[in-house]
Amino acid sequence: MEALKKSLGNKDGKIQILRGLAIISVVIIHTYPVGIFGVFLRPFVNYAVALFIFLSGYLTKTDIPSYKTTIFKRVKKVVIPYLLWSVIYMIPQGFENFGLNLLTGRTCGTFYYVFVYVQFVLLTPLIAKLAKSKYRWIGLFITPLFSIVVKYILHLSGYAAVGSSYNYWFVAWFIFYYLGMLLGNNIIIIKKNNALNIVMYSVAILLSCCEGFLWYKFGDINMATSQLRLTSIATSLASIVLAYHYIRTDKKVSRGVIAKVLILLGNTSFGIFLSHILIKNILEVTAVWKYAVFPINAVVVLGMSAICVLIGKKILRKASWILGL
Predict the structure, then answer these.
(1) What average pLDDT does this structure show over 107-127?
(2) What DSSP letter does each residue of 3-69 carry, written as one string?
């Protein structure tokens, strides 16, 4: 409850609300029914990982007295929980190729995010230099160019396997972290224009739905739902612009129930991220799970994950960070 009260402050509360929305979308992505429904659902929730990465960049200063200290703290904060949860997730697999999977973020299908995040933390000094240089615009083209090469040219040329590991590398998500750093440090400013922002978001969603449907008709479900094809990147950027203006608005954070729930989810988002696949796997072997259709299954997984994180925080107290709670 102390974390909730603390987060009711203006900027911090907004950041946590956005994290709450992002973790809801992450759980939805892992619980929706595969098929045509998912193809049209994904454009609305594909922003999730991009938003988390954007917020990390947004909260990163380009002028830090000691990058070594900052980098160590950030890496320690995610790597230790990652190590412990990796052991938990690898138990059913018998620890086959554990070392390699651990080093490459493959101990759990969703843990690529930690692998990518650590890359960004380690590269922050270089990214900050680029952001402050006169060539800063180059950084905005890295992700789109790599997306064209990996997700389209190589994919259509018969090298689809190359793209299967693409989401594990920082270049795939670079534009989101980089844009966050640019906006968070006021190096660039995007003027608020609600009408234009909504139109851009709507167009991006429409294009993403159309592209997703085409890939689905071609029999490629992975591309149909990918977060890293061009139209998905566009929807994530449109969502990020809306999030950016929400953070910067002078309007205070609502103290209503919905805002408090979102802040609570935001405060526990990393713990939910680490644990929700385990909760889902456990629930899937129960007799009642077959009746938990979408979105009920998403609500159950999200709720139980949040409750487990809160109980863990209560029991472990100051040591709860070790498990990422």
Answers:
(1) 94
(2) HHHHHTSHHHHHHHHHHHHHHHHHHHHTTSPTTHHHHHHHHHHTHHHHHHHHHHHHT--S--S-HHH
